[in-house]
Amino acid sequence: MSTLKNELDNAIRKRRTFAIISHPDAGKTTLTEKLLLYGGAIHLAGSIKSRKTQRHAVSDWMEIEKQRGISVTSSVLQFEYAGYRINILDTPGHQDFSEDTYRTLMAVDSAVMVIDVAKGVEDQTKKLFKVCKQRGIPIFTFINKLDHYGKMPIDILDEIENVLGIRAYPMNWPIGTDGQYLGVFDRRNNKAALFAADTTHGQEARSADIYEAASPELVKRVGNTIWKALKEDLELLDEAGEEFDLEKVAAGELTPIYFGSAMTNFGVQDFLDGYIELAPPPAPRDSSIGIIEPNDEKFSAFIFKIQANMNPAHRDRLAFIRICSGKFERNMNVWHEKSGKIIKLAQPQQFLAQDRQIIDIAYPGDIVGLFDPGIFGIGDTICDEDKKFKFADFPVFPPEKFARVQAKDTMKRKQFVKGIEQLTQEGAIQLFQQAGAGTESYIVGTVGTLQFEVLEYRLKNEYHVDIVMNMQPYELARWMAAKDGSEITPASLKGADRGMFVYDLNGAPVLLVSNEWALGWITDNNPNLLLNHVPFDKREV
After folding, report:
1. How far apart are the C-alpha atoms of 472 and 109, rounded to whole Å?
2. Are residues 328 and 266 in the same domain?
3. Which of 108, 246, 449, 535 is such that its CA lies 20 to 30 A from the CA of 430?
4. Is the pLDDT of residue 49 over 70?
5. Domain end residue (candidates: 352, 383, 414)
6. Residue span of the structural domain in which 242 resides
């Protein structure tokens, strides 16, 4: 075995790359913050809602996120823990940003699902879980907010199994009574961890006393009533519950469950230790030439995210890549599949949210930020020029909301065009030009209405452009082509006035209509017409 192969195998074995998914407000970003705390990446943890110290979560770097207390873009966080390299991708919880979340899930090897103990499985969790299920991504579950009153642990298990359709295995079990839990019982190691009182409001790591099962000290500390209830619960789980099967976990058929409270650091380290042990290392990837193994000596990666203005002072653009195979080295030359050119990867960076450092090497599973001079797009493949191929395309979301957007001040048109085109390249919005309408305004399409607020905020604060935005009455977009290959124009399309005829950035004709009835009329009256929810060379999510 070659020296490089050995080096790759060792690095791959020590890497864990995962996304954290949840419904908004389940505590996802707070958990991310606490994992960083235990990893030694930060010394004082901030929470989304922290007002005492006015610290904001490290992963919520964008100003609008700090103001609204929600995550609107995925962030990348990296740290070392117990000899492992952890890559966390924190994702937006809000459904309007599910496209960004979906792309993020393309770049990970496992997912951590955060569930609020009081609310159980919520709508957005179901949607994100479905995506993970489709891709066969192993899912680890963290039942959060155990410091609040909530559903009984056994009821939460039932809900996960019945609503999501995945078997559940509790790795630990809460000790105590609802809202006043004293610690957790580690089922695999047969030990109890009782936590010290939280005196720092979750800003520092929380110590725990470890007891052997059924030790007199444990019974004495928790009291007979609680000990008896715990014993009964554990017997029930052993008799009627699932058996632990790591192969089923790897296949996404069984989810290991951990109970805790991210806010108070209750059970967080227990979860982190368990996750590192059980989660899969970087996995092989499908490509145009077959399966690419992570320990393949030829370098390859794909771009899953582009972010403009992470550093407002420099007006920079970063492309985030997931390394899939080989060894990444600073200033290396790679083949860029989309342009067909050889490019140099200078100034590669790794992240703690917006804080970054230049790196010299990275390995499969790692997430690296590259300076983007405007050549990269989401889904692009970069690889060794001696082994050229393309990773599978990213699916895309059809837009459902539309607005006409133009600069309030015509003198700022140049900044407006630059801003809106750069934000389009990030993938949060889609841009269209109305046929025959000139270039003073754009039609913007999004998956949800919140993106419009973010667009307006970022154009004003990052590009210093105030905009006029008029919502449009359309809910459906269809890309058009002719069965006989002829050109489709507003003049050739019967009933074009029943909607809006626009072109996407590649010049492809698109029809916007308000309902299925209008679409049906146009289809019936244009027998030569082919329609698609997304561009013809893309596939729909």
Report:
1. 39
2. no
3. 108
4. no
5. 383
6. 16-278
Nearest to 35 by CA among 274, 268, 199: 268
Q: How far apart are CA 397 and CA 409, in angstroms?
A: 32
- Condensed to tens digits (0 to 9), the pLDDT of residues 441-460 reads 899 998 888 788 888 988 88
Residues 132 and 184 in one domain: yes
**Co-location of 330 and 405 in the same domain:** no
Residue 479 lies in a domain: yes
Q: Which residue has the tokens 């609107």?
A: 72
Cβ neighbours for 147, distance < 8 A, ≥ 6 positions apart: 179, 181, 261, 263, 264, 266
pLDDT at 334: 97
CATH number at residue 528: 3.30.70.3280
Residue 541 lies in a domain: no
Helix, strand, or coil (residue 15): strand
Q: Are residues 408 and 371 in the same domain?
A: no
Helix (H, G, I), strand (E, B) or coil at 265: coil
Same domain, 230 and 307: no
Residue 274 CA, distance from chain mean position? 21
425/505 Cα distance (integer angstroms): 11
For the chain, the average pLDDT equals 86
Letter string b/e over residues 395-431, b meaning 16 or more CB atoms within 10 A of that residue's CB: bbbbbebbbbbbbeeeebeebbeebbebbbbbbbbbb
Question: pLDDT band for position 71 (50/70/90)?
Answer: very low
**What is the per-residue DSSP string for 295-346?**
T-SS-EEEEEEEEE-SSTTTT-EEEEEEEEES-EETT-EEEETTTTEEEE--
**Contact indicator for 294, 156 with CB cutoff of 8 Å:** no
Q: Is residue 389 part of a domain?
A: no
Are residues 36 and 143 located together in one domain of the fold? yes
Angle 358-10-134 from CA coordinates, rounded to 5°: 85
Least confident of 309-323, 339-353, 369-383: 309-323
**Is 449 found in the same domain as 490?**
yes
Same domain, 242 and 290: no
The H or E element containing residue 239 is helix 224-240
Eight-state DSSP code of residue 70:
S
Structure-model confidence comparison of residues 201 and 400, the more confident one: 400
At position 500, the amino acid (one-letter code) is: M
Domain count, the chain: 3
Spatial contact of 404 and 442, defined as CB atoms under 8 Å apart: yes
